[in-house]
Amino acid sequence: MLKTQEIKKPEFLSIEKTNTLKGLFAIFVLIHHIGQNTTFLNGTFFQEVVNSLGYLSVGIFLFLSGYGLFVSYKLKGHEYINNFPKRRLLPFYIQNLILIAIYLIFWEIIGQTLSTRRIVLSFFFGHTVIKYGWYIQATLVLYVLFFIAFKFKPKLLKITTFILGYVVYFGYCLINHFWSVWYISVLCFAMGIIFANINNFKKQYFALLGILFAVSYVFGNFINNDFSIPCKMLSAIAFSIIILEISKRLTFRFNFLNKLSKISFEIYVSQGIFLTLYHSKLIYVKNNFLYIVLVTVSTIFFSIMLNKLFKLILQKNKIKKPKNT
């Protein structure tokens, strides 16, 4: 149950609340991708709503990631940045390598031909054999940007580095005609860092923020126009801020979502296997309801196993598994 709690000066969002949000939006991402692979909602208003859950949920994940990194930096100081490559970048990239191997085996099993370019870029940036793996590559870029920016002590250099980094990222995506999912939600990462610095978000701003979200969401998702992408970007940012500030002011506890948060990353990166498998030549499930059940159960079970595999491989190499982003 939820109940309001008066907080004059909101502190950092607790780990428990962060985990609850991660668990919740991991479910929303799965719902979004299932919606894209079934015909339940075709032609209805709810189809567009489910479609929008994708970029909004990713926005939350990136917002919480930037927020969490800055909180850790603020609490631990420059030592956190010095250890960042070993404790965050390296284990995250190793997980990426494990996933590349798993997906290469999977594509081989179902008879999917992969180009050499796609395989090679999986280790870098721009394409990947991991379904929905753009999120991994984008997150790695943002992690590197965070590390470089916070190696500088002057605040102006940090800000300048972030701005230049985002300009390069957006420029590269646009020049190479990347699908818009690569950049719609990435600004939420920077906003997460900014809002980790804000201790008192005034209540009167909620109305303006709500209007901004409503207008940008409608124009971004329901009205075809030249500004749909910028509107989606604005709605992702506004949505993330609203969720953060509401979460600060509410007391809630959902044990199931907290447990699910431990495999939220694994759910995101493994669902592509089963969304594809049960609509492949190897196994084709026509019934929408059965497809949803099989995808959901298989994804959660596989995610638990994948989480254990990550821990096993990283621990054998004396590397600590990073917390799910």
Brief summary:
This protein has helices at residues 15-36, 45-76, 78-82, 84-109, 116-121, 134-151, 155-175, 187-195, 205-221, 228-249, 255-261, 264-277, 288-316, and strands spanning 3-4, 250-251. The chain is mostly helical.
Describe this structure in words.
- With 325 residues, this protein is mostly helical.
- The chain is 70% helix and 1% strand.
- The chain has helices spanning 15-36, 45-76, 78-82, 84-109, 116-121, 134-151, 155-175, 187-195, 205-221, 228-249, 255-261, 264-277, 288-316; strands spanning 3-4, 250-251.
- Strands 1-2 form a two-stranded antiparallel sheet.
Describe the secondary-structure layout.
Layout: E1 3-4, H1 15-36, H2 45-76, H3 78-82, H4 84-109, H5 116-121, H6 134-151, H7 155-175, H8 187-195, H9 205-221, H10 228-249, E2 250-251, H11 255-261, H12 264-277, H13 288-316
Mean of residue pLDDT values: 91
- Element order, helices and strands? EHHHHHHHHHHEHHH
Uncertain runs with pLDDT below 50, 5 residues or more?
Answer: 1-10
Number of strands: 2
Strand order of the largest sheet: 1-2
Radius of gyration equals 20 Å
Distance between the termini: 26 Å
Q: Per the principal axes of the C-alpha atoms, what is the gross shape?
A: globular
Output the number of helix runs: 13
